[in-house]
Amino acid sequence: MSEVSSRAQRVADQIQRELANLIQLEVNDPRVGMVSITGVDVSRDLAHARVHITVMNTLSEDSDVNEATLSSPGELDKLEIEENLKALTKASGYLRTLLSKRLSTRSVPKLEFHYDSSIERGQQLSDLIDGALAADRKLHGE
């Protein structure tokens, strides 16, 4: 893999900060829920930016649904992630226009949104470690 230039990294960091604010304040699509931007990768020529997002669970009125969706990723979570990605992809042109007013670059990269499952994988690994520790304590009678 090629090393990212410091300028591209600075632009990526600024895009991440600005997009976090813009998504929260400017995107009025009801499909966009609690979205967190985990990272931005900008191409060498600053023409494309891959925006990595995670979607936090939104609570519904039904507590049984909340229990099911908060415990492990299921079909509802996948649908919510897909809807958020669709809405952000649809709003990417608008977000790019708003970014052009905030960035001090000649051109603004085309935004491509992708789901980042690293937090989900981290939680699964943490649960496995906790389960192994609990089994070890039970086995050794502590």
Automatic annotation (TrEMBL):
What does UniProt give as the signal peptide span?
A: none
State the GO CC annotations: cytosol
SUPFAM superfamilies named in the record = Ribosome-binding factor A, RbfA
Note the superkingdom of the native organism. Bacteria
Entry-linked InterPro entries? KH_dom-like_a/b (IPR015946), RbfA (IPR000238), RbfA_dom_sf (IPR023799)
- What biological-process terms (Gene Ontology) are attached? maturation of SSU-rRNA
Keywords of this entry: Cytoplasm, Ribosome biogenesis
Q: Which GO terms describe its molecular function?
A: ribosomal small subunit binding
Subcellular localization, as worded in the UniProt entry: Cytoplasm
| UniProt record similarity statement | Belongs to the RbfA family.
State the oligomer form and interacting partners.
Answer: Monomer. Binds 30S ribosomal subunits, but not 50S ribosomal subunits or 70S ribosomes.
What does the function comment of this entry state?
A: One of several proteins that assist in the late maturation steps of the functional core of the 30S ribosomal subunit. Associates with free 30S ribosomal subunits (but not with 30S subunits that are part of 70S ribosomes or polysomes). Required for efficient processing of 16S rRNA. May interact with the 5'-terminal helix region of 16S rRNA.
Q: Which HAMAP family match?
A: RbfA (MF_00003)
Designated name of the protein: Ribosome-binding factor A
UniProt lineage: Bacteria, Pseudomonadati, Pseudomonadota, Gammaproteobacteria, OMG group
